[in-house]
Every structure is written in structure tokens, then in C-alpha cells.
Amino acid sequence: MERVVLIDGSALIYRAYFAIPSSFSTADGTPTNATYGFALMFRKLLAAKLARFGAVIFDAPGPTFRDERYPEYKAHRPSMPDDLRVQLPLIDEVVAAHRYPTLRVPGYEADDVIGTLTKQAVAAGHEVMIVSGDKDFAQLIAPQVRMLDPMRDVTYDEELVRKKWGVLASQFVDHLALMGDSSDGIPGVPGVGQKSSAGLLEKYGSLDGVYENLDALKGKQRENLETYRDQALLSRELATIDCAAPLPFGIEGLTLPPVDEAAINALYRRLEFNSLLGADQREPLAEAPDANTLSTDEAVRAWLSAHAEGAIAVAPVLDSEPPRAPALVGVALCVGGDAGYAPLSPATAEALHELLAGPRPKIVHHARDLDAALRRAGHALGGVAGDTALASFLVDPTKCIPHELERVAREYLQRALPTARDARGGAATFAEADPAAVAAWAVSSAVATEDLWTALVPRLDELDARKIHDDVELPLSGVLARMSADGVRVLPDVLASLQRDFGARRAEVEARVHELAGHPFNLGSSKQLGEVLFDELKIDVVKRNKTGYSTAADVLERLAPKHEIAERVLEWRALDKLINTYTEVLQRAIDPTDGRVHATFQQTAGASGRLITTDPDLQRTPIRTDDGRRIREAFVPRGGWELISADWSQIELRVLAHCSNDAALLRAFNERLDLHRQTAASIFDVAEAEVTREQRTVGKTVNFATIYGQGATALGQQLGVPRKRAQEMIDRYFELYSGVRAWLDRTITEADASGYCETLLGRRRMIPELRSNNWQDRGYGERIAANTPIQGSAADICKLAMLQIQRELDARGLAAKMLVQIHDELLFEAPPAEVTEVVAVVRERMERCVELAVPLEVEVGVGPSWAAAH
User: Fold this and answer.
1) What DSSP line would sit under 607-622, residue for residue?
2) Under 8 Å CB-to-CB from 346, ≥6 apart: which residues?
3) Strands (E), 295-379
4) DSSP structure class, residue 487
5) Most buried in the list 182, 240, 792, 811, measured by CB within 10 Å?
6) What is the pLDDT of the chain when averaged over all its residues?
7) Could you give the percent of the chain with pLDDT greater than 90?
8) How many CA atoms are closer than 13 Å to the CA of 636, on its beta-carbon side?
9) Residue 79 gets which letter from DSSP?
10) 591 near 324, Cβ under 8 Å?
11) Within a 10 A sphere around the Cβ of 67, how many other Cβ atoms?
């Protein structure tokens, strides 16, 4: 028995087209979203069990016998989009590069060709895998025939067909004949749905059996079946796959030759699918220099002496064993394509630390990580002239997020590097891995880092981004390394106490929910919760999703005022999140050697330019609820010191005022008026003095909705008001702040013309979605164009302030340390004697790091914990 793989190409190209944004294109503007999605699915299929025979089958252009039989068949379907039609030859090239036969039979659908080949394969004793998500193929499923849905990664056999549709595979055509299929224009019998059809077929076996027993039926169902008998028979004819389509060749003509990786890679390079390049693109590690030669100080110095000219590309090998911070295992060095590896040991430590701390120019990918590891070991990193991760981010922030070396090398060098997992083999750490494999991986990384710098510098210059790299992002990486190395002290006992409290309360709430439900169930299961709320308790359904009832937070919030159980579920979820996301995670993140959490501050993970913390994500530390604020009680300074929290007030709205030059916004900030109250007064048409607390909250929501480009539907859902009322609020907002409307329109128009938007520092973000033919993609692009200059500029301001503060603290010789950056807040620790001076420095730099048309204001607090200082 051989395997025959029959791929429904027509179904896959549409799925790929709608799965990948239509903005996906080559540099010359050729749309490739469907081609890329199709290639992804093809790649996944080839990674599975190899087949002896296979083909990709497409619908042939022109009408089929079904169209002649029933003109309404699929007549409602829109014509193929133009940007998909132009990709059909490219998809054919993808198939041809993989050496799969392609079939199109005039007058027949792909389903019929697949059905005919399936019949031939089964007759020849083979097993068949049909690759499609089209339910029509359920009629072909048999002991030797299965269907793989590649999007859902579900394989259908006879049992799964029965479970999903309630009928046997052999009954599926009759099932469609009875209930119809609106997607194909098959009419069926009115009033007969999936459940009633399945019930009829279970009782009478087939469509013919149903009509033979029509007298046993009653009421409207019998009337409809009798009235629409001819329509049911026509529907069966239309739904039946023709397994006798005329084919140019049979199964033996579908033999699959070995895959030609070179041809596939050549095509993917032309289509700019660099992330799909295969194994033949790897650096030939056998050609790497002998990486074991640099095993002593003398060897390191001799290598450096022989490579005295030019910048050195440095690729560190870092071992991380959470919660302990990463430690340096060794470094690979490269100059002019010649590379070597030096493992860190007592025999090499002196020479390596002299090199790494010295002024010799160095190129590093994520210099922040090497710098932080060195600082934790009591050393430093000096002379960094370039960071290829930062360069890639500045060239195009969205292309390779989070801009790890392997992805960037694929994109800009068309080179597939071995991964860290490859280097470790089965070992948990680099220290335990095969030294030769580690050395080879590190050397290939160093060579790639040098080549990337050469490739990226011209692109930085073209974008006028070299200055941002040199003056902002690169020095900031050093500041972030210091923050990561220093860490922040977190008290595990406080977290443990909070966890016990939250756990006890969660158990109480869970018991109450079970009482209200009438029985125990898993509150963490959305499916079980939906069944309890809407099936058992008969609460009105608010919203459905693909898997059933929606029990999302917005749904429960709408139900909570009327139903205690919804209110209690929200309370349970809040406590559960505090435990699972904060108290447990933070306790695990504390380094036992110093009692501090050493988070990583990511510069290249947020497309807008905002910094993001990982390992752990401190930016998610809650502040909006009393319970959430208690988490911050565990964050304390080192013994005898104080924590200082400094938080910008409404920085993004102030940036909006500066960018838009709107008179009402400028006046509000320059005269220190209550902006949210001012907006609420306009929305509710009342005097500012009469604005209630609740109305001011609405005004605040509308103010920030502008920044994030919320439409009336989203705003209405957030405020719990009808869409019409939300639109009225938006209209009133733009009447008051007409300069904002003009600026938004102008910004989107300029971005549409140029293809990008910029922050105050000139940092660019490309927005290919603006040129999409898909209105949803284009709308998303317009929101990016409006939001990035605001949020991205706020990020720029934060970065400038951090740089200036650190330089000022160093210049004054202060011991105070900058610990954490979260959203618009900076956290410091300082000895008591320095607190007054540090507060003055922080306030001065945060409020005056840039000059805007409105003042920046900062709220500063001091205390023995983060909760007390904020």
C-alpha cells in the first residue's frame, strides 16, 4: 500500500489569500500573500510522511456540467479578486518547484478530479490523503481515504465525520441534498437543517429511504419534503462528486520525484520569501576556521594581533538557567570573514575582558545582552560601534520582530543559520553541549553579524536612521543592560502572602459560582462556562464565536449587572490572573543569589518603538485595582534605600497636542485645564463645572480612543452605549478638536503617499497595509499611521529622558540606579542622602528632554515600596 496525496489547490489558495494580509508583496509591489500562504502549507505537508504519488488539483477556468444543470450553482460567489488572479502563475511555480504534478480538467471541478483519482487509487490498493478543508470531500472518506484540513490541523476519518456532522460518510451526499449548502448555492429542502437531516438519515438510511417513508412523517417537515422533492434530488446531483472525470493520466502518472531544494530556494529568493529558505542555504560549517585554537590568553591576543584592522564582529554564547540571569560561556570573533571562538575560562578571561571592555570597535547583535552578562560578572562592554539587531529594527521594525539573528540573517543575507538548539544538541545548556558544535554555531553567528552590518548600514543611511542608531538606540542599549544587570529587589514572602490571600478568596468565589450554577464545573473552561450560563441557566446569549458561546470579559461585564454569576466569574478570573500571571511568575523570577528580578528590556519587540520587558514581563504589573496595586508592595529598594517613581502625565495626549497644533488641546495643557472634563463637557453638552465623575471618565475614554483610532463600534462596546451614540461622541470630539481631525487626515494622506510614517526623531515605520485592496487591512494601516507618530514619539521621549538621566547621574557621581521602565513610568532606587537630588534630576530631564508646544509634566513619589512611591 502506497500513500497518495491529493491537494485541493483551489481551496488552499483562497484560504491562503484570506489568511495572509493582502499587503504582503515583493519590493516591486507584486502581491504574494496567497503565494506565501500556499507555500507555507506546502512546506508543512512536505514535513509530514513522504508520499509515493501526489498531485495538486485546481478548478479549470470556464463553466462545469453543474453550471449547465443549475445556473444558480455557486452563482452568488464573487469573482476572483484581481490581486489573487495575478498570483495564480506564481502558485503554479511553487507547485512545479516542489515537483508535484498539476491537474486542471475543463468542465470539471477540482472535487471531481480528486474524486476520480481517489477511486483509482483505492482500486489499486493505495491509501489516500485528501488535503482540503472542504466538507464536500466527506462523501469520499472510507477506510483507505482520509482528509487533512491543513489550516485546522485536523484529519477526518469515518468516525470524525460521524461526530462532526452526525451522519455516516456514505450518507453525506444525501445530507447535503436535504439541508442544502448555501456556500455552493445548493438549495436543499427548506426547513431541513443539519440536525433534522441527520435525524432523518439515521432513521431511514438515505434520501431515497426518506421519500419511501414520507407517509410516516408529519406536519410542515413532510409538506416541505413533498413540495421540494425535485429540488432535493437536484441537490443530490449537484453535491455528488463525479468520480469518472476524464483524466490525461492515471495514478501512475502522479509519481513524485525527489524534491529539488535548490530550485525551491531559487524561487523563494525571487519571491523574497527569505524565511522559507531551506537547508541548502546554511553556512557550510565545515569551512569555518578551527574554533578551538583560541583557548588561552596568548591565542586570543595572537588572533587579535593578526586581525588588527577594522571593527570586530562579536557573537557571545550566553547560558541562561532561570531564574538566574544569563552568564557568558564564550565569544566568537570575526574580522574580514575570518573567525575564531574563545571559550571563557581562567585561561582566556583576562584577554577576553580586556578586548570586550576596550575601545576597539565592535559589532554585536543585541549588544545589550552581552553587556548585561558582563556587568553581572563585574566587567563591562566598551567600544560598541554597531548593533545589527537595532539596525534591522530601524530599517523596518515590523519585518523581523523580535529581530533575532536567525531571522535577520534570513531576511537580509538569505542565509539560514544553525540555531542555538542545533548547537546544544540534546543538552540543556551550552556548558554541557559538545564544544565543537557550540564553537561552530558561534563562529557562524559572528560571520553573519559582520555581513549583516555591511548589508544594513547602507539601508540605515538611505533612511537617515544612522544618527538615531548611533545617538539614541545604541547608547540606550547600554542603559538597559545596566538596568537588567542591577535588577529590582522583590520580596518573595510578600508575594507568597498575597498568593495565599488571593487563593483563599478565589476558592470562596469559585464555591459561590458552583452554588449559583447548581453543580461544580471548570471555571477555566470557556466551553463549560458557556453551557452553564446559556444552556442551563438560560441567560440571553450576547455573542457567539467560532467555537460556540463567547464568555469574554466584555460579555460578562454586560451580564454582571443582571446576573450575579457573571459578576462572580469576573471576580474569579481577576484573582486567578493575579495568581497565575503575577504572584507565581514573579516568585519564580527572583534570582536566589541576590533576591532581585533581572528582566530583559526589549528595544526591538514593539513596532511602535516602545520598550517591552520580558523574563518576566514587568509592564503587566497591575495598577488599576486595589488587589493589583498590592503586587507592587513586594517591589522594594535595597536595604536602607528609597524607591522613586516618576510618571509622565498624559504624555501621549500632550504629543498629540504638539503634533496637531489644535488650539483647544494647546490651551488645555498650557493653561493646565482638566482635559478630560473639557472633552466630557462637549460630549454631554453641559458646563464644565457640571460634569460628573462618570461623565469625566467617558471623556477620558474618548480622548484616548482618538490616539488608538477606535471607531464607533469599538468605542460603543467599551462604553456600553449604542454605536449611534458612540458616533455622536466622536463627532462632538472632532468638533471641539478640529485641528486633530485635520492632522489625522493629513497624516494618513502623507503616509499613503510615502508608504510610511515617522516619529518626532524621524524613526520610520513602513505601512504596506495602506496600499492593500482589502478594506480591513487598509483600515488597520490608517490606524497605524495615526497612532505611530503619537505612541512612537512618546517612546522616543522616554528613551531620550532615560539617556539624559543616566548621563546626569553618572556625571554627578550618584549611587542611585534606574531600575525599571514601564509604559510612562520610570522607577529608581537611591540612598536617603541622594533622594532630593535624584528627584530634581529625574524631574528636570523628564520634563525638558525635548521641547514641545505644551509642557511635559511628571508626577514623582518616594517611598519604601513601589506601591508607596507611585
Assistant:
1) TTS--EEESS-GGG--
2) none
3) 312-321, 324-335, 338-343, 362-364
4) -
5) 792
6) 89
7) 57
8) 15
9) P
10) yes
11) 15
What stretches of 25-171 show up as alpha helix (H) in DSSP? 33-47, 65-69, 82-85, 88-97, 110-123, 158-165
Which of 581, 580, 600 is CA-nearest to residue 322? 600
Alpha carbon distance 845, 838 (integer Å): 11
For the chain, percent helix, then strand, then coil, each to nearest 5?
A: 55, 15, 30
- Tell me the mean pLDDT in the region 246-264: 84
The amino acid that residue 80 corresponds to is M
- Cell digits for 474? 545604541
Give me 59's grid cell: 478548478
Q: Across 789-857, where does the E strand assignment appear?
A: 817-822, 825-830
State the Cα–Cα distance between residues 618 and 283, nearest whole angstrom.
38
Site of grid cell 531600575: 819
Give strand ranges (E) for 384-514: 384-387, 488-490
Angle at 381 between CA 386 and CA 762, to 5 degrees: 35
Say if residues 318 and 327 touch (Cβ distance below 8 Å). Answer: yes
Other Cβ atoms less than 10 A from the Cβ of 171: the count is 26
How far lies 55's CA from each of 98, 108, 123, 154, 190, in Å? 11, 16, 18, 20, 38
- Provide long-range contacts, Cβ within 8 A and 24+ apart, for 433-437: 435/292, 435/343, 436/291, 436/292
Show the cell assigned to 550. Answer: 463567547
Strand partners, 817: 829
Let me know how many helices (H) and strands (E) the chain has, helices first: 38, 25
Question: Cβ distance 111 to 245 under 8 Å?
Answer: no
Q: Structure pTM?
A: 0.75
Q: Is 639 exposed, middle or buried (0-12, 13-18, 19+ CB in 10 A)?
A: exposed
Task: Encode pLDDT of 70-94 as tens digits.
Answer: 777 776 667 788 888 889 999 999 9
Tell me the Cα Rg of the chain. 32
Q: Report which residue type is found at 537.
A: L
Q: Looking at residue 77, what DSSP letter applies?
A: S
Report the alpha-carbon distance of residue 13 to residue 494 in Å, rounded: 55
Residue 594 grid cell: 541576590
pLDDT of residue 283: 43
Encode pLDDT of 425-465 as tens digits.
Answer: 888 899 899 998 899 999 999 999 999 999 999 999 999 99
Residues 6+ apart with CB under 8 A from 634: 490, 491, 492, 494, 495, 498, 586, 865
Is 316 in a helix, a strand, or coil?
strand
Q: Grid coordinates standing for 741?
A: 481631525
The grid coordinates listed for 54 are 501526489
Q: In degrees, to the nearest 5, what angle opens at C-alpha 768 toward C-alphas 767 and 773?
A: 130
In the chain the first and final C-alpha atoms are separated, in Å, by 70
CB distance 278 to 266 below 8 Å? no
Closest to 449 (Cα-Cα) out of 544, 335, 549, 591: 335
Can you name the residues that pair with 820 across neighbouring β-strands?
A: 827
